[in-house]
Amino acid sequence: MTVKALYDYNYPSKDRPELFGDDMLVHVMWANNMMFCSAACFRAPKAMSFADFKSQMVDPWAASDPDYDPSSAREWQVNGEPFGADSDVSLADTGVGHKGLFSFRT
Amino acid sequence: MAKAKLSMRERYRLLTRDLDWEPTYVDPKKVYPYTRYEGIKIHDWDAWDDPFRLTIDSYCKYQAEKDKKLYAVIDGFAQGQGHLSLTDARYVNSLKLFLQGVTPLEYQAHRHFGYLARHLDGPGARFAALCQSIDELRHTQTEIHTISQYNKYYGGLHNWSRMHDRVWYLSVPKSFFDDGLSAGPFEFLTAISFSFEYFLTNLLFVPFMSGASFNGDLATMTFGFSAQSDESRHMTLGLEVLKFMLEQDEDNVPIIQDWVDKWFWRGYRLLGLVAAMMDYMLPRKIMSWKEAFELYLEQQMLEGLFPDLEYYGIRPPRHVEQAITEKEYMSHQVYWILYQFSFAASFNTTVPTDEELDWMSGAYPETFDRFYRPLWERARRLEEEGNRFFFRGLPMLCQTCQIPMGFSEPGDPSTLSIRTSQFRGERFNFCSDGCKWIFDREPEKYVQAWLPVHQIYQGNCGGTTIPEVLNWYGIQDGVDNGEYLTSPDKANWDKWHTGAVVGGA
């Protein structure tokens, strides 16, 4: 079904990937910690390694919970599929995609 | 001998029907260009039956009398320092939410009913829209005047109009209403007159106004009384408009069913803010969200209204069973979001008192002690250790309702619900089956959503740091936002109630 309108109704997405240039939006969810009401949203370079993404963006956010131990994050998933959390792979190559979701457990 | 005065019914007929004419030298479709493209078929606009039959003079007379009473009370409230009689300064947070979130919607409703007063084909319907347009403007003004009394003494109330256009949690009511404004006239009537003003109104209006009455807020309570007769007129109109559309043509039924489904879920998600307000922002509770939902939605609507609508072929809204499941925990999920993001809100949040935690255990025996009490107890410990818990980052947002995605899988509060859709190769995220369903019906519309988090990341909100964004929002850091216990509102309230002599400001 499409929008009913009196004219050709066709507008671009407000968050289309090109608006973020060399970056992308990525979500991260700490799956078994209810202290965080929702997953977090980050803007990160597509070329950033997963290790850097984790240490520079995910760890400071997860440390909102003072009990967070960065070495305890495990059972990573990308968009619901198991993910090895390989350190060197770039965010783009993880396959997470613009506005996709990583999750982990502790 | 003077001619006998016309009856009110006769004057109404003359005003609406007698002053109307059929256009002859311009095609009626050009005079009323917006009432066909949605697919709704109206064969006889004269079948419109306005249940109130107000005329301009009687309408103005009633409204003037109500205004006179309201402004007398507001004057008395101001002169007698009425704000000091509240149960607690914490209560004012619900007024902040109301002024920032609801008052701008009243104004938008005023504008759009003005548009309908021009563009509906039938004179009775146009006149009803005109009256409602004036009502909504009056409500906007009286709400501003009432709540302004508190702006002299409390934070967070000074910049509500700008905030409504910019702040993340206010994009929830704003996007809801914009969705209606940008729809056709019949969808707007279903969305606002029926779904919002009839189906869900008691869950919005009663909690705020009863909350005012229970918490010593005489000014807002009086505003509520002043608006009540208008609201009951709007409610009647909402049901009338729905039945009118359904009776005009059988082909209208599936279109309207779709709108009933959509606008139930849109409205219900918006009411998440009311649920959080009821259970957490009122120092003296009226009833729990769960009780209100059972009374106003399950009993009055699902058991009262929908059996009647079955006659027209309308069934209860899609996804309503998920809302029923959520009544056990929805308010806790929403306030938990507000609690940890209140560093970026124009109100204060805090951990409920022990008495309140116990009240919640009683009100939510299935879920509170198991899932939420441990969170609040931990949040309190952290606060006492000087480490007040905030979410240090930005949240994932639902593309449709725009609320941070803090809702859980139905019936499982410990697992967050995340739904996705692909459209033109792009991924979109949703908090629930209802929000995904709404997107999938009209993806071209919702891809344009102004999502506050994504806008911040695009650099469109004054900068990328929290102070820059707060400045752009018009929120004064350390005054309007954050923890209640360390807020100026709390400090002032304590000062005003110590009994010590306080001079000056």
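qc> The domain at 20-105 of chain A is CATH 3.10.20.560 (Ubiquitin-like (UB roll)).
qc> done
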